[in-house]
Design brief:
The complex is a heterodimer of chains A (210) and B (277). Chain A is built from 10 helices and no strands. Chain A has 210 residues and is mostly helical. Chain A has one domain. The longest helix of chain A has 33 residues. Chain A starts with a helix and ends with a helix. With 277 residues, chain B is an alpha/beta fold. Chain B has 2 domains: 200 residues, Rossmann fold, CATH 3.40.50; 64 residues, no CATH class. Chain B has 9 helices and 13 strands. In chain B, the strands form 3 sheets. In chain B, strands 5-6-7-3-8-9 form a 6-stranded mixed beta sheet, sandwiched between helices. A 4-stranded antiparallel beta sheet of chain B has the order 11-12-10-13. Chain B has a 3-stranded antiparallel beta sheet with strand order 2-1-4, covered by helices on one side. Chain B is elongated and about 65 Å long. The mean pLDDT of chain B is 90. Classes of the chains: A mainly alpha (210), B alpha/beta (277).
Chain lengths: 210, 277
């Protein structure tokens, strides 16, 4: 598994310019007080592992990874772990910039519970895309799964822009207004769905033929 | 012990099926899997490697059911090397040493030097021959006991092919090393193989030691009339043209008066495959 993760990080190192520029832009927006914008950070970053799967298929790494001593379940898990690492980094950076922005711009009083709700919202939006798309990728390959990916990316992008531009649908506020139990239930449900997605991907990939 | 043993392997696809394929590759030997495009060579190899799931039959490697851990002992070269195009030699070493338990970076870099591969250039800049050499370097750098090679010389020029064949010959100097190699470039296989297996339309049509094959079969130039007078089972394949008829025959079934010339594996394969059609 370690070798597979190293491969993912080498791939990231070779393709990191665009994500880094994007993250810098998002962090800048967060610091300037546009806390809604930071929701784009995990959304954008969560697309990366799926796009690397397309690179894998183009170079035939998907087949090569099956002739090396790695179980199919490890191949799937390495993608999910890589996804979680990337999303975690993007959330830390986004939250950090949001924290600074909220403290610098004193128009509204900084409320810890609202900030934590924002982080929860970031985690949820970050997990949704890979949670839905990765099982399709592992079952059908990225070329066939692209239609599902495009529809879903459009849905996520559209939703995110609605949340960013609407006062009523501000994700952080929605989460902030929710009761504590409801927040925990939603977080637990998303975590559970992510694990189900992980398990389904392993099942699909074990059955797949090349 | 057999390095690979395949018994009654079947796999059905739309328009093609692998039909009860049985092959045994003894340890220390090289077996050539020969067949035209679409004959089923790659399907056999994919089944052995677990890339596809057979419908029936049994595959064992070193006497055991194949597992992913077992791939530490197997070096594989497919017709396309699946290294991401942006990666260089150093990246490949960093990944492989964390995948193969017996990966030897020194051996790997020795091969890279021997093959004159650039260690800083991206894989996408490599020629077909260089890519294939990198695939072979990886396959030989983790102390594998078995090489499984699917069309490793296809698309390569004769010089590179000859160089690669020499490397495979070196590999089998160790008596515990074995190779299963598929190709439709029969002349390459003829140079190195101990065993020859013909596969045609998903069926094994012949599986024999190469030396026995060359002893058993011969090549004659004659006429249709003379050929018609021979026992039908003596003729394994024929080709008629305006100057006469050429045929591959079973030596012991042909009268000693015939001028029987040695047959090449390529002739044997071509004539037998045409006869099957």
């Amino acid at each position: 598994m370690k070798g597979l993760l190293i491969k993912e990080f080498i791939m990231f190192r070779k393709n990191c310019i665009a994500p880094i520029i994007f993250l810098i832009f998002i962090m800048f927006a967060g610091i300037m007080g546009q806390s809604q914008m930071i929701v784009f950070a995990p959304v954008f970053i969560s697309i990366i592992p799926s796009s690397y799967m397309t690179f894998d298929e183009t170079s035939r790494w998907d087949i090569y990874s099956l002739i090396i001593p790695e179980k199919r379940s490890n191949i799937v898990s390495s993608k999910y772990i890589f996804t979680l690492i990337l999303i975690s980094i993007s959330i830390i950076l986004a939250a950090f910039s949001g924290f600074i922005g909220l403290n610098i711009n004193k128009e509204n009083e900084f409320v810890w519970s609202s900030f934590l709700s924002l982080i929860e919202a970031l985690i949820i939006v970050g997990l949704i895309f890979p949670m839905v798309i990765l099982p399709f990728n592992f079952k059908l390959g990225t070329a066939k799964a692209r239609i599902a990916a495009m529809i879903f990316a459009g849905f996520i992008g559209g939703s995110a822009s609605v949340f960013v531009n609407s006062e009523e649908l501000n994700l952080a506020l929605i989460f902030s207004d929710m009761g504590g139990l409801l927040k925990i239930i939603i977080a637990a449900a998303v975590a559970m769905l992510f694990l189900i997605s992980w398990g389904l991907s392993i099942i699909f990939y074990k059955k797949r033929e090349f | 012990m057999n390095a690979i043993e395949i018994k009654n392997l079947t796999k059905k696809f739309k328009g093609f099926s692998l039909d009860n394929v049985s092959i045994s590759l003894p340890t220390g030997c090289i077996m050539g899997l020969i067949g035209e495009n679409g004959a089923g060579k790659t399907t056999v190899i994919k089944s052995v490697l677990g890339l596809i799931h057979p419908d029936g039959g049994k595959i064992s490697i070193f006497g055991k059911e194949p597992t992913s851990e077992m791939k530490n002992d197997i070096g594989v070269v497919l017709d396309e090397i699946g290294i991401p195009i942006q990666f260089n030699i150093k990246d490949v070493d960093s990944i492989m040493k964390n995948i193969f338990t017996k990966w030897d970076s020194n051996v790997f870099y020795d091969y890279i030097k021997k093959f004159s591969l650039p260690d800083k250039k991206a894989f996408k800049t490599f020629s077909k021959g260089m890519k294939m050499k990198l695939g072979i370097a990886i396959a030989l750098s983790h102390n594998a006991k078995l090489l499984i090679l699917d069309e490793p010389t296809s698309g390569l020029d004769p010089l590179v092919r000859d160089e690669i064949i020499d490397i495979f010959n070196d590999f089998t100097r160790d008596e515990t090393h074995s190779i299963l190699i598929s190709s439709h470039i029969v002349s390459d296989l003829e140079k190195i193989c101990d065993y020859i297996t013909f596969i045609h339309n998903g069926k094994i049509t012949l599986c024999e030691e190469k030396d026995i094959l060359l002893e058993k079969y011969g090549f004659i130039n004659t006429s249709e009339e003379v050929l018609a007078g021979l026992d039908k089972s003596a003729v394994k394949g024929k080709k008629s043209h305006k100057f006469g008829t050429e045929a591959v025959i079973v030596r012991e079934k042909v009268p000693s008066s015939f001028d029987v010339k040695p047959v090449t594996i390529e002739e044997l394969f071509v004539y037998m495959s045409k006869e099957e059609k």
